[in-house]
TrEMBL record:
InterPro entries from the UniProt entry: ATP_synth_F1_a_nt-bd_dom, ATP_synth_F1_asu, ATPase_F1/V1/A1_a/bsu_nucl-bd, P-loop_NTPase
Protein source organism: Salmonella enterica subsp. salamae
Keyword tags: ATP synthesis, ATP-binding, CF(1), Hydrogen ion transport, Hydrolase, Ion transport, Membrane, Nucleotide-binding, Transport
Enzyme class, UniProt record, top EC level: hydrolase
Enzyme Commission code(s) on record: 3.6.3.14
Protein name: ATP synthase subunit alpha
Subunit and partners: F-type ATPases have 2 components, CF(1) - the catalytic core - and CF(0) - the membrane proton channel. CF(1) has five subunits: alpha(3), beta(3), gamma(1), delta(1), epsilon(1). CF(0) has four main subunits: a(1), b(1), b'(1) and c(9-12).
Record-annotated ATPase F1/V1/A1 complex alpha/beta subunit nucleotide-binding domain positions: 79-226
Top-rank taxon, per record: Bacteria
């Protein structure tokens, strides 16, 4: 059995005792998180004071079954005519944005968030393994266009531990499920899941799990499917 320390670990040394809390990992959820920048554990990092949350939600929950899911029948307007007319995205749908570096993947996602200012859709932007300066530019752009008030920004920078980068998508999904369970729509952007896979590989190698192709563990595909499995219309 392996264990990963979620709290401060820099001062830990061999032979020291680390106690388990005995609780399943939870993150704060609620409307008070809108307009805030938080870390993977839901703690504010934007210097605006404590977060006014409505409660806590487990980062790993059972996704709704097929029968409970509604069909995708409402579009999400991204603001790009080529996307909205040729390959429209529906509410409750999962969509992969793939491409080479510096081809505008993040710009497309950010513009889609900005386009939801007056649509009533709550947005969660999950930044995984990025530089703090890059995330700061994204937050500034959202604020300039009046979209930050409708958005939760979950941050796990490249300087943070692999455990926090691995859990960031699950934390963002739990925050989005809060709105889903209340009959509202939420748009979740994971930027990007390849960094989460690298963090998961690092954790798996440290825990001495059998490596597969390119040293990734065999369940890396389940990792991404489970983080997106709760994305649906109910």
């Amino acid at each position: 059995m392996g264990a990963v320390v979620m709290g401060p670990y820099a001062d830990l040394a061999e032979g020291m005792k680390v106690k388990c809390t005995g609780r399943i990992l939870e993150v704060p959820v609620g409307r008070g998180l809108l307009g805030r920048v938080v870390n993977t554990l839901g703690a504010p990092i934007d210097g605006k004071g404590p977060v006014d949350n409505d409660g806590f939600s487990a980062v790993e929950a059972i996704a709704p079954g097929v029968i409970d899911r509604q069909s995708v029948d409402q579009p999400v307007q991204t603001g790009y005519k080529a996307v909205d007319s040729m390959i429209p995205i529906g509410r409750g749908q999962r969509e992969l944005i793939i491409g080479d570096r510096q081809t505008g993947k993040t710009a497309l996602a950010i513009d889609a968030i900005i386009n939801q200012r007056d649509s009533g859709i709550k947005c969660i932007y999950v930044a995984i393994g990025q530089k703090a300066s890059t995330i700061s530019n994204v937050v500034r752009k959202l604020e300039e266009h009046g979209a930050l008030a409708n958005t939760i920004v979950v941050v796990a920078t490249a300087s943070e531990s692999a455990a926090l980068q691995y859990l960031a998508p699950y934390a963002g999904c739990a925050m989005g499920e809060y709105f889903r369970d209340r009959g509202e729509d939420a748009l979740i952007i994971y930027d990007d899941l390849s960094k989460q896979a690298v963090a998961y590989r690092q954790i798996s190698l440290l825990l001495r799990r059998p490596p597969g192709r390119e040293a990734f563990p065999g369940d890396v595909f389940y990792l991404h499917s489970s983080s997106a499995g709760a994305c649906c219309a109910c």
